[in-house]
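Look over both lines before class:
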Amino acid sequence: MAFPSSNVRATCLINGLLIWTLLFSSARCDLPKCTKIDDCSCKLSDGKRIDIRSIGYQGKQAPRFNFRPDPLGNWEYAFNPCYDFSNTYCKDVIACQKNNQESYGLGSASSAVWGDNGKQYIITYTDDLRTTIVDLVCSTASQPTLDVLGQTDASKTNYYFTLTSKCACPDGCQAPTPPSSSGLSSGSILCIIFSVLVLVYFIGGTCFMKFVRGASGKDAIPNADFWTELPANIKDGAKFTVGLCKKESKYEDLS
């Protein structure tokens, strides 16, 4: 019986390695890289985004997911996507761990690192001693859910959560559109309208007085007497108001 030569065996081995590499690479290509935009979102190569900011709560409402036990029941965990929160047990954290005797913060929003584990995208949060790892699972459900896994490996400093939401899907949740800085407030619009009306009044009135009635100089100003006397009338009104206030204060002192 003839055995394959060493060259044939080497060729088969190389081909096998190439096939394995191609299969592994194609499996990885199913999950394109998502590059971090900010603490709450990342961007895929096709331009789509994964954005979880609409899940998290801010202010007194936070955290979105309040304390719930891990599978062993030894610890309870609270988690708030995207935004730091503070409570009785932790301050300025993305996640908090507690039991009857102790409590620990598990990282901050600003420490967010976006990545993947080959199956789904993950966000990692860290502090000096502890690490929170959140698996993002794409779902069409209207409400997000959080599964607390806690410590699932030999490491006592890694804590795992699974966040299931439509916001974990590419373009599943869009970031809120910031208000336009060029928009005018209602007060600004009223001021513009008032200014235009005053301008039309003076220009139109002056043209009427000059070309229709033949007035010239100061007399061409519409209602010239009113505008001439207006500063003096304002001054008299201010004096009258101040005088009333002084009289009222004297009456109060006498009483």
The CA atoms of residues 4 and 12 lie 10 Å apart. The two ends are 130 Å apart (CA to CA). DSSP finds three helices and twelve strands in the chain.
